[in-house]
């Protein structure tokens, strides 16, 4: 019977301690309830103020979460001190500091992406719906979170990029401006007049509606090609990939039509065959050549 008596005494002592702690537990529960209400209220007030200031939704969500975490940490600290009076703020902060070091080493990559996400949201190097390229990945920005950024590639696939990569590596923002310059190479035969061909190409490009009128069309004779004189044709159009492809299509078609109408030859490569020994072409060879043509 002695073991049962010991267990009974221990349970009785625990029950007495629990009853003695009921007022503190009730106060701690009240503190947690107040903490919950304060976190919700402060989040709404902060969101309204930041929306009036014109901040982005992702940045507003970040501040709202940080404020809520700070309020909950303070509420938990106060509740713990009420329930366990032996605890002091200094001892709690010391424990939190040691735990933070251990957690920091274990989740280094997570915290790196978290800090990079905060800096990206503050600096705004790119925005939602921007078309970006980084480390071979390119697409439209769909979502920017604390840890990662989601982009939608032109083929419909969704790619999730860690914020640390976007923060440390070069990022090309193709839609930072509404207009973007693009170019094609167009060749004419060596026997054609260069100035006339340049004028024909210029008028053809200017007539394309996808070419922006506020920027000048630039055409330069670039080089002597293997079978043509090559022009670099440059113009400005919309910055999205679809606008770039559509403008290229219209410009190529317009330039081809204009050069054909002006009877300016667009050459193709010629090949000259050289033999080490003279070729003897007899009557049979001539007949064979004619039949092959």
Question: Could you characterize what this model shows?
Answer:
With 293 residues, the chain is α+β, with helices and mostly antiparallel strands. The chain has three domains: 11-106, Helix Hairpins (Orthogonal Bundle), CATH 1.10.287; 124-173, SH3 type barrels (Roll), CATH 2.30.30; 179-261, 2-Layer Sandwich (Alpha-Beta Plaits), CATH 3.30.70. It is built from eight helices and eight strands, in the order ααααββββαββαββαα. Strands 4-3-2-1-5 form a five-stranded antiparallel sheet. A three-stranded antiparallel sheet has the order 6-8-7. β7 (218-224) and β8 form a beta hairpin. α1 packs antiparallel against α2. The chain is elongated, with a radius of gyration of 37 Å. Residues 286-293 have low confidence and may be disordered.
Low-confidence blocks of residues: 286-293
Helix content: 55-70%
Strand content: 15-25%
Instruction: Please give the CATH class of the largest domain.
Output: Mainly Alpha
Strand order, sheet with most strands = 4-3-2-1-5
Q: Total domains, how many?
A: 3
What's the total number of strands? 8
How would you sum up the major sheet? Answer: 5 strands, antiparallel
């Amino acid at each position: 019977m002695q073991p049962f008596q010991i267990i009974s005494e221990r349970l009785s002592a625990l029950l007495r301690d629990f009853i003695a702690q009921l007022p503190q537990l009730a106060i701690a529960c009240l503190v947690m309830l107040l903490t919950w209400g304060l976190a919700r209220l402060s989040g709404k007030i902060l969101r309204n103020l930041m929306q009036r200031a014109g901040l982005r939704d992702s940045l507003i969500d970040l501040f709202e979460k940080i404020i809520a975490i700070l309020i909950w940490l303070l509420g938990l600290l106060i509740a713990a001190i009420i329930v366990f009076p032996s605890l002091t703020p200094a001892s709690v902060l010391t424990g939190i500091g040691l735990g933070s070091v251990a957690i920091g080493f274990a989740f280094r990559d997570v915290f790196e992406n978290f800090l990079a996400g905060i800096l990206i949201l503050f600096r705004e190097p790119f925005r939602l719906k921007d078309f970006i390229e980084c480390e071979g990945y390119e697409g439209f920005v769909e979502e920017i979170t604390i840890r990662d950024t989601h982009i939608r590639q032109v083929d419909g696939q969704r790619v999730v990029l860690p914020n640390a990569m976007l923060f440390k590596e070069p990022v090309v923002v193709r839609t930072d401006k509404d207009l973007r310059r693009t170019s094609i190479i167009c060749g004419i035969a060596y026997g054609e007049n260069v100035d006339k061909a340049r004028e024909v190409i210029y008028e053809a490009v200017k007539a394309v509606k996808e070419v922006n009128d506020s920027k000048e069309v630039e055409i330069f004779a670039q080089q002597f090609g293997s079978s043509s004189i090559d022009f670099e044709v440059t113009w400005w159009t919309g910055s999205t990939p679809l606008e770039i492809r559509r403008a290229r299509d219209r410009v190529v078609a317009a330039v081809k039509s204009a050069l054909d109408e002006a009877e300016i030859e667009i050459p193709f490569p010629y090949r000259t065959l050289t033999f080490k020994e003279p070729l003897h072409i007899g009557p049979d060879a001539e007949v064979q050549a004619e039949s092959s043509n």
